Write a sequence for this structure.
């Protein structure tokens, strides 16, 4: 069934849950036992039979799983045991925690409670595995790639927004997209810094003008998203969306949007729709398998998708008509001269496939600052700015390195960027503590498989029947969702040392400390790993480094402006009493597909008088 048809899927599921057992019960009572049920007893007995059927089915599945476990020589993944049937209390706790708790803390608390790093939450009687075990993350992404896919449920949640783009497809369609997209990230393309130069200059000009007005605070999360989107749109489809020229959020006046600030112009509506769509997808995954129940009469992403499509459709249309004109004129330009949109238009005439793939790349770009990585790049730059604001010593060291290698102006080369070792360390340390994709989901393929025994993060095991020296692998049942949590793995003290929560770029420079990572590179996966590793990784490093060089050539003082944060976006006081980073956090990190700072990151940026 097509993933967009979620209502039909839900109806068929209800038929399976209600109609099938009712039909069996009807057949038994009328043809086998031949009893006549009264008007009052019939509904009660039908209902009782449906419950009996569901319990039997669940027991049957468990028996099959046990048999598979025995065959594989594996043990069961520990299961969360809530107080209410179907672990509904755990679901309620999680939904509440997503609104008020520190990012992913609700998962960490579960792991601590059960003293293991991989658990089955089994909410509403449905297996759902969560894992912060780095070996399991490695298996899902790389060594055991063939056992997993994005799966049916993820596609269903994202279909209305991302459609058939690379992030929302598996197998043949994904391979086709990946093959088509990869040439656009060849070194010579991503080392051409002309585009970065133009949009960086425009962005820094905005910062200059704003900060010269009695050091007015600026929401850099919003600004970096615009920078990323404009640069990415030119890189991908040769057109400037020019969001940097639209209305900027104003300190103290701007409302809180779905993630950061919200402005009320056409760009604001695009950004809001873009962010809202991600929020809707995240909310669906939190509710789980039954999310369509809450969207029976209204697909919550339909209006968001419509706004975003309204921006992209004219671009796709013009690329297709340009292609037609070129074909009629018998002109064929070489691949190297085409932008990504023109290249996509070469491969298909289907405007929907082209639009969906463009949108996926925009999503990736906006948060890094590229369109597909664009989201992640903006996120990366936002958190680097956060650290520069709270650690002036880091800013000074970064700036000295920039001035030493790149001077105060002039063109910047790829080689110069490669020599900025401290800057690379700051970027990596930021990606370690705040990976723009802090959690991700996959589904196991139909046959079950095994995961290595849980790592040694917690010495005890939550399964009282199993000895701690039990080295059997864990059984990953087939067709089951698994949420893996790079943010927690990248802050795990067993992997990174007792100072894992501390921002310390030197861990990437000092031989002995770095050796932990060199011996086990998969403990750091902000760009994912394996066959689906991020295609924009080098683009993102180049773009972020380029931007930071220019920023630090012009400015040297960054300070947070908590008074400018929209109300409700500062970290709750109770976080101070907790352990880990949250006790010291000056902003509210939150996630909706990708990481962001709640309410935006409002900072003052200045150059000291020299
Ligand atoms: C700091 C910046 C970035 C980070 C942290 C990042 C992270 C990631 C991650 C974690 C994935 C895997 C998603 C998954 O499989 O579920 C991914 C995939 C991808 N990224 Fe990035 N990304 C960044 C920037 C970019 C940029 C700038 C682009 C391109 C404009 C880009 C393009 C892609 C594409 C096309 C994929 C899909 C690969 C596939 O499924 O085969 N990324 N990225």
């Amino acid at each position: 069934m097509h993933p967009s048809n979620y209502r039909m899927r839900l109806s068929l599921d209800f038929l399976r849950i209600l109609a099938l057992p009712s039909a069996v019960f009807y057949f038994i009572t009328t043809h086998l036992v031949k009893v006549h049920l009264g008007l009052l007893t019939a509904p009660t007995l039908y209902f009782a039979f449906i419950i009996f059927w569901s319990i039997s089915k669940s027991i049957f599945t468990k028996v099959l799983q046990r048999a598979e476990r025995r065959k594989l020589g594996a043990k069961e993944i520990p299961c969360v045991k809530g107080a209410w049937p179907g672990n509904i209390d755990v679901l309620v706790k999680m939904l509440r925690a997503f609104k008020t708790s520190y990012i992913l803390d609700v998962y960490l608390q579960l792991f601590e409670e059960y003293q293991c790093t991989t658990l089955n939450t089994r909410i509403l009687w449905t297996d759902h595995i969560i894992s912060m075990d780095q070996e399991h993350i490695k298996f899902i992404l790389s060594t055991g790639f063939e056992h997993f896919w994005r799966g049916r449920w993820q596609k269903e949640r994202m279909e209305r927004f991302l459609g058939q783009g690379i992030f929302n497809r598996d197998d043949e369609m994904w391979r086709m997209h990946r093959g088509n997209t990869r040439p656009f990230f060849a070194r010579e393309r991503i080392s051409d810094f002309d585009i970065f130069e133009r949009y960086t200059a425009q962005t820094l000009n905005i910062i200059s003008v704003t900060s010269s007005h009695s050091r007015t605070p600026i929401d850099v999360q919003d600004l970096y998203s615009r920078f990323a989107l404009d640069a990415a749109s030119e890189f991908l489809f040769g057109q400037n969306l020019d969001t940097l020229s639209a209305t900027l959020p104003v300190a103290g006046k701007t409302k809180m949007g779905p993630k950061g600030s919200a402005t009320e112009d056409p760009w604001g509506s695009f950004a809001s729709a873009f962010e809202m769509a991600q929020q809707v997808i995240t909310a669906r995954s939190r509710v789980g398998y039954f999310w369509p129940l809450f969207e029976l009469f209204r697909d919550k992403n339909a209006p968001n998708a419509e706004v975003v499509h309204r921006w992209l459709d004219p671009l796709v249309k013009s690329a297709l008509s340009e292609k037609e004109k070129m074909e009629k004129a018998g002109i064929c330009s070489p691949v190297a001269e085409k932008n990504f949109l023109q290249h996509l238009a070469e491969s298909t005439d289907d405007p929907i496939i082209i639009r969906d793939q463009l949108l996926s790349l925009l999503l990736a770009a906006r948060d890094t600052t590229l369109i597909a990585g664009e989201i992640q790049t903006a996120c990366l730059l936002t958190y680097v700015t956060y650290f520069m604001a709270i650690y002036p010593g880091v800013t000074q060291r970064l700036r000295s390195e920039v001035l030493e290698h790149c001077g105060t102006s002039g063109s910047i080369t790829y080689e110069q960027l490669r020599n900025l070792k401290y800057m690379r360390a700051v970027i990596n340390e930021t990606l370690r503590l705040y990976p723009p994709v802090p959690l991700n989901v996959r589904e196991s393929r139909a046959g079950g498989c095994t995961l290595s025994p849980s790592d040694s993060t917690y010495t005890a095991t939550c399964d009282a029947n199993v000895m701690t020296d039990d080295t059997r692998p864990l059984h990953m049942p087939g067709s089951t969702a698994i949420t893996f949590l790079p943010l927690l793995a990248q802050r795990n003290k067993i992997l990174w040392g007792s100072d894992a929560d501390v921002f310390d770029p030197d861990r990437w420079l000092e031989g002995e400390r770095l050796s932990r990572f060199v011996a086990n590179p998969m403990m750091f996966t902000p760009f994912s790993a394996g066959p689906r590793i991020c295609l924009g990784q080098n683009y993102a490093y180049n773009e972020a480094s380029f931007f930071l060089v220019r920023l630090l050539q012009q400015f040297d003082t960054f300070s947070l402006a908590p008074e400018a944060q929209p109300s409700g976006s500062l970290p709750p006081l109770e976080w101070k009493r907790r352990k880990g980073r949250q006790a010291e956090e000056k902003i509210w990190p939150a996630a909706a597909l990708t990481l962001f700072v709640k309410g935006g990151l409002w900072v003052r940026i200045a150059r000291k008088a020299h």
Summary: The chain has a mean pLDDT of 88. The longest strand covers residues 440-444. The radius of gyration is 26 Å. The pocket of protoporphyrin IX containing FE is lined by residues 166-167, 178, 181, 232, 361, 364-365, 368, 370-374, 376-377, 380, 436-437, 440, 526-528, 532, 534-536, 539-540 (CB under 6 Å).
